[in-house]
């Protein structure tokens, strides 16, 4: 290869052509420097561009991060509000249990849920997730507890409606529950297992609790009688009626008219012989009036 090059400069207008002799190494150096300059310039341009891009990306991520942090805080606040609401529900249920005389539940204890913790977003999300899980458990327990209260109240309500209470008819007591002289011509004492309530013939007789008519019968001693099964071990007997208005198996409520006062059976005047039995044992009906 030649050791030197000749660069010819040919101007316009017929002027003299100029020749410049350049050595090969000078030419190589110039080319190398030019290439280095171009490379450096390209690199700097790339860096500048990259820097700008990273800057705007950083700014965008900061915005996103801020928004996410705000969302998390709001979520945490919502969780706290739910916790408060749940605590409020627990208080209300405790008051209902107290008023209804239902024993308090050992379940559904209040759940401790704190505010948004410091630290990275991932830690915060985990913490909120745990809080939500704990709330979910607490809500399930609370639901079960309220279901228990509802069932207990229904049971209490149903027991209360079934338990014999009040007078079976409008009248006055002529014979009490307990030992008494045998009235008709015989000597001795025997237990009177009910209450005699005198009233005019035809006066309505009412069931004293919800139940089912277990028996409608006529006997020498009780005359026309009705027996109602109230469940929970309670039965009531209404005897000496003139007329019976219900049939065996009929459902009755407290206050349903079941018969009319009469003088049938072993009776010395129109009255209702009213008996209350608990688990087959007669109890004093006066305690239920
Ligand atoms: Zn009697």
Based on the model shown, name its key terms.
289 residues, alpha+beta, Glucose Permease (Domain IIA), 2 domains, eight-stranded antiparallel β-sheet, three-stranded antiparallel β-sheet, rod-shaped, binds zinc ion
Number of domains as seen in the coordinates: 2
Helical stretch count? 2
Q: How far apart are the termini?
A: 136 Å
Instruction: Please count the beta strands (DSSP E, at least 2 residues each).
Output: 15
Overall mean pLDDT stands at 88
Could you tell me which ligands this complex binds, including any ions or cofactors? zinc ion
Structural class based on helices, strands and sheet pairing: alpha+beta
For the biggest sheet, the summary is: 8 strands, antiparallel
Q: Based on CA inertia axes, which overall geometry fits?
A: rod-shaped
Low-confidence stretches: none
Strand content: 25-35%
Helix content: 40-55%
Radius of gyration: 51 Å
H/E order of the elements? EEHHEEEEEEEEEEEEE
Describe the structure in your own words.
- It is a single chain.
- The protein is of the alpha+beta class and 289 residues long.
- It has 2 domains: 1-162, no CATH class; 172-288, Glucose Permease (Domain IIA), CATH 2.70.70.
- It contains 2 helices and 15 strands.
- The chain is rod-shaped, with a radius of gyration of 51 Å.
- The model has no long low-confidence stretch (mean pLDDT 88).
């Amino acid at each position: 290869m030649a050791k030197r090059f000749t660069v010819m400069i040919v101007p316009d207008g017929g002027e003299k052509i100029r020749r410049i002799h350049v050595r090969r190494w000078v030419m190589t150096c110039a080319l190398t420097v030019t290439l280095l300059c171009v490379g450096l310039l390209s690199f700097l341009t790339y860096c500048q561009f990259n820097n700008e891009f990273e800057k705007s990306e950083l700014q965008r991520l900061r915005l996103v991060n801020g928004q996410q942090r705000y969302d998390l805080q709001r979520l945490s606040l919502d969780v706290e509000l739910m916790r408060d609401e749940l605590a409020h529900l627990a208080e209300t249920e405790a008051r209902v249990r107290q008023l209804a005389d239902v024993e308090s539940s050992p379940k559904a204890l209040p759940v401790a849920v704190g505010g948004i913790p410091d630290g990275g977003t991932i830690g915060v999300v985990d913490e909120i997730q745990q809080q939500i899980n704990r709330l979910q458990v607490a809500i399930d327990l609370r639901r079960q507890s309220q279901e228990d209260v509802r069932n207990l109240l229904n049971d209490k309500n149903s027991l209360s409606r079934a338990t014999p209470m009040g007078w079976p008819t409008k009248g006055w007591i002529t014979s009490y529950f307990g030992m008494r002289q045998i009235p008709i011509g015989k000597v001795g004492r025997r237990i009177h297992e009910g209450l005699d309530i005198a009233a005019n013939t035809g006066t309505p007789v009412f069931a004293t609790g919800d139940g089912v008519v277990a028996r409608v019968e006529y006997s020498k001693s009780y005359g026309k009688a009705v027996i109602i099964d109230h469940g929970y071990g309670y039965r009531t007997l209404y005897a000496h009626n003139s007329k019976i208005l219900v049939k065996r198996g009929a459902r009755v409520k407290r206050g349903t008219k079941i018969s009319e006062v009469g003088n049938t059976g072993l009776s010395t005047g129109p009255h209702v012989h009213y008996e209350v039995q608990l688990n087959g044992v007669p109890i004093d009906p006066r305690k239920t009036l």
